[in-house]
Design goal:
The structure is a homodimer. Chain A contains nine helices and no strands. With about 240 residues, chain A is mostly helical. The radius of gyration of chain A is 21 Å and the shape is globular. The structure holds a DNA duplex (30 and 30 nucleotides).
Chain lengths: ~240, ~240
DNA sequence: GGTTTTGGTGAACGGTGTTTACAAGAGTTC
DNA sequence: GAACTCTTGTAAACACCGTTCACCAAAACC
């Protein structure tokens, strides 16, 4: 039941091969090895032919970023689904651990997507996972005291905007949330959690801890515990409802 | 009273110009613009001549990293010296703010030094600043309860090693410290602080916050407050001694 | 069957890192 | 001062890069 013509199918197939070759080059030989000629060589065609599919080398790299985000999102969703506890705390933990594991297994991709002085964000393919998770977290109706006045007033405007983004992300999933569940205080802690999660993972991937860490995993787990506790989960996770 | 011969002086001068040109290219036109031919063009020589000074393009980039670290360290030392309060909390704050300011003002340098999947650490030129600061922090003899059993036992070995590094860094500055001042609990919080500091700065430099932050500085200051409070400083900094 | 669209080629331009052979000058030694 | 060595540059070349252009064959369309 493919609506596509023969030609469209061939084109889509070639495009898939291009992305695949680009990805393999990035993984195996680094960012600088992702070159038009190398990709073309892999497909058995010549470099100018690639211009029938992408406007420039840069455009191809951007597409590559999007693919990476989508793939990572799929992995994280799988990690999320693999957790059968039904407890939000465990789910958060699973996704955060999944993010770390993915980053360590794909350092080149991580560097390209998360640590390039690129314009905005590669794609919100990525943010969707975290937003969905935040959605579940909110929907779980955890009642934790995070007074709004804990956060400086200058931040209220930005946090309120993020609050709206989160609300929208949640409502897309068909869940409505009482206002007081997702107050600015909690939002603030969510942002702080992202800072710590990203900070630890990036430091580990790039080897920028101030000393040689022989086994970073327990340190990560320890940070995760404190993170969850800050947001409002108890360590032994008896906090669901 | 330069011991150097005329030739050595000339050589040193040329090398200085090479570094300077490389730096300018990085800052003004990005990492990919730091090319041997461009540098040579700037000096009015040809590219192969650079091989008399550096083994390869990669070696030159490594040298560039070291230079960047050294310059940043100088800036942070200046920030540290500019604080005349004499209070350690203010000094920590000054250096952390200085680090953020430097990173935002030098995104290309930051990306090169702190976010490249490079081997170990570019140079410990960089770590020295933080170590010295940590040294002062320790020397200030803040007595805050951070029980060792707060941190998981698996981390003890690594943290103890870092503890030794810190001790050495302090003793170089001619200060001896009682053992109980720098216990593993405090060490752990210092590492966690580095995670948060790095995480926030990197996210800001790379624009990877999950929403548009109109004015990130108060958010940074807020994080700093909580960081210092976690380590054991009171917010209004009456904690010195 | 003729026409248009599509997806490929090969040649070329200017750019890159790197190697090699060679030359000119500075420093040293007799 | 002549002879020698060491240093620092050059020019040419190689292989690779992104990109453009003219061209071409086959597929799709009418």
């Amino acid at each position: 039941m493919t609506e596509a013509t023969r030609r469209e199918r061939l084109r889509a197939e070639t495009e898939r091969e291009i992305r695949q070759a680009a990805r393999a080059l990035l993984v195996e030989r680094g960012r600088d090895a992702v070159t038009l000629r190398a990709i073309a060589r892999e497909l058995g065609i010549t470099a100018p032919a690639l211009y029938r599919y992408y406007d420039s080398h840069d455009a191809l790299l951007r597409q590559l970023c999007d693919d990476i985000c989508a793939d990572m999102a799929a992995v994280l969703y799988a990690d999320l689904a693999a957790d059968t506890s039904g407890q939000v705390g465990c789910q958060v933990r699973a996704v955060c651990r999944g993010f770390r594991r993915w980053a360590l297994a794909h350092p080149q991709e991580f560097a390209l997507v998360f640590a390039s002085p690129r314009d905005p964000l590669g794609a919100d393919q990525f943010g969707a996972v975290f937003l969905q998770l935040a959605g579940r977290l909110i929907a779980s109706n955890l009642v934790v005291k995070h007074a709004d006045d804990e956060v400086p007033e200058v931040l209220h405007e930005d946090l309120a905007r993020f609050q709206q983004v989160l609300m929208d992300a949640v409502s897309v999933h068909g869940v409505t949330v009482e206002d007081d569940v997702l107050n600015l205080g909690k939002i603030y802690h969510v942002v702080q959690s992202w800072v710590r999660l990203y900070g630890h993972v990036a430091l580990e991937v790039f080897g920028r801890f101030p000393f040689a860490v022989s086994n970073p995993e327990p340190m990560f787990d320890s940070m995760l515990d404190q993170m969850l506790s800050d947001i409002g989960f108890q360590e032994d996770d008896s906090a669901v409802r």
